[in-house]
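In practice, a research group might receive sequence data for several interacting partners and want a quick structural hypothesis before committing to experiments. The following worked case mirrors that situation: the sequences arrive first, and a predicted assembly follows.
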Amino acid sequence: MWKNIYLWLDERLGLNDMYNNLLDRPEPKGSWWNTLGSASLFLFVLQGLTGIFLTVYYTPSPDHAYDSVQYIMEGVAFGWLIRGIHHWGATLMVIVVFIHLLRVFFTASFKFPRELTWLIGIGLFIATLGMGFTGYLLPWNQKAYWATTVGTQIAGSVPFIGELILKSLRGGPDLSALTLQRFFSAHIWIIPAILAALIGVHLYLIIKHGESHFPTKED
Amino acid sequence: MNDETKKKINERYEQELNKGERFWPDSIFKDVVVSLGIFLLLVLLATFVGVAPEPKADPSDTSYIPRPEWYFLFLFKFLALYGQIPLLGKIEWLATVLIPGIALGALTLLPFIEKNPARYYAKRALSISIMTILVVGIILLTLMSEVPTVSEDGSKLLGILQAAAGLAIPGLAMIVLFIASFAFKRTTTRFFIWTTSLASVSMILISGMVLALHVPPQVEETEVAVTLVDQIVAGQDLYSIHCVECHGDDGSVDVIEGVEGLEGEKITPINSTDVLYTITDSAMYEVIAYGRPNAGMIPFGKAYGGDLSRSEIDTMITFMRYSWDDRFESPAIPELFPPLAEGEVPSYDVHIQPIVKRYCISCHRAGKENNNYLMDTYEEILTTGDNAAKNIIAGDENSYFLQVIQEHEIMNPEKPDEVLIGVMPPTRSLKPNIIDVFMRWIMNGMPQTAVDAAALFTAP
Ligand code: HEM
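A structural hypothesis for the assembly, expressed as tokens:
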């Protein structure tokens, strides 16, 4: 019975092809350093799942953001666990992605034919930092508020267009309800969409070119 | 890159593939182990470290020292150190935009900058050395981010050391490495290793010195009331300090008594539905922050020159709602202090401090009229005041302190018809159980800690 179901699905989905192309690939002898990319992916998915849960209770307005986060911590069953994982996951993701970048740098895996993988990777790195920066403001507490104030100020020091950048980040000259709204939207829609798309291309390129081997004297 | 090299690279890769493993199950296995490990770590962090509570954002509190997310701290520190450089330090955008921009740009275009197909470490000595120095620098700058560039005593030593470890040495080392690799074609790998190690080790040593020399300032622990009960209690304490003199313990005052300039002023009791139903939380915030200057209520919000932060005013509103507004159902609030058994002696920490905070601090703190009697700490209660010598005498029922809280005025010994100290608190009488606590405390020698007090326990 199962066999028949499998065959039926295989005929339509091409499960065997998928197995051969995606899973049963040959690879050079791997090392634990090669797990950092998939660890980044795992963290991205985990942040997505816990983040979706948080949006159920979170309200992006200066009057309610703080209380809604407080409610998640105190009132919702296991809310503290989910928020704790999301909070520490953000920190860990930045670390893991950065070490992944360093690993790729030190083994010179960005060289031919993987230049594009590297470029996409830089996009992923910036987007990950962007997630951290926008997410930090959301709890609307003192730390968040002032960190964002200085963060946007630094962006505002760009010559000529600084004023414009500052105002478009904050949605006005000062941090306000608009800023929170903007950061929220960037944090849950815009940047995750960019990340997901870039990860798609990144993974495609990795499968296409295969994992690079660790360099030896011959390389 | 010509087709010849490309072909060679591909052939070399084929060779490695033949000696290699399979994605499934070999690589996947490691990936799953690491991901599970990360998940476990996150659950442990969330459970045992948690997320530190923080007070609500308060745009008016400009005294708050802003700090970015931890992974931007190194940039922040870099900016601070850069700002010390004479002349150049004034051009802010060089450090905020140009240098990080160049660094990020170089990182992005790396595959096109390092075009040489060689992958082995020794053949890439320059880029590996530079990256190592950068990473060491970033880590050290992050670790030193807490240390100010000018110490409290005005010494610039720490700033100079930091600039050496975070700017000068790495900068110098990189210049040396560049010159060595472009000016002298035959620089050996060993030279790169030595320069990089020397620079990194001296950076680490100097930073270690900075961290060892730095005495972290005593930060005042700001307690954040998290649970509703904590918030109500904290709110009541704040209310007792700032509001009772005009509005009374329970907000029921309709004619102000004993406040200079407002004597006999008729006000709407703030515990009435008139006030509570018509003023929303945000309007209430405004009333308290901005005060009612025309009617005589001073502003309390930091933004208007008062000393309460947004969170503090919010907790006070929480207290008012849950205590007086019949639309809110109050949770069970623990007693101000644990009731005393027969023969038990109260201590400062457990009993006296909360009572004093609730009933006396509103007047007995700096800047109020109180015969210079401050009650913020244990020592102050025992030693300050114009009549300190006679206020609190261990084991003496005639201590002024005990007399005035039992509604006996103290007359001036020199001028017998002049009142020296009026009854305390001036406008209301204390409950018998509170007077009993003060009485037992002074009669038994004013123990400070619960342990000291327990030693004095006399079983009946
Ligand atoms: C959200 C962030 C990222 C995810 C989810 C991700 C995912 C992955 C995965 C699963 C792999 C294959 C396994 C491995 O080698 O570890 C990989 C390889 C690679 N990644 Fe990333 N990555 C991310 C960020 C980056 C960054 C920041 C860079 C560098 C700028 C980068 C550059 C590369 C390159 C060049 C490879 C090929 C390595 C090789 O073939 O040896 N990636 N990435």
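Before designing any experiment, note the following. The pocket of protoporphyrin IX containing FE is lined by residues A 34, 36-38, 40-41, 44, 97, 100-101, 104, 109-110, 114, 117-118, 121-122, 124-125, 128, 199, 202, 206, 211-212 (CB under 6 Å). The mean pLDDT of chain B is 87.
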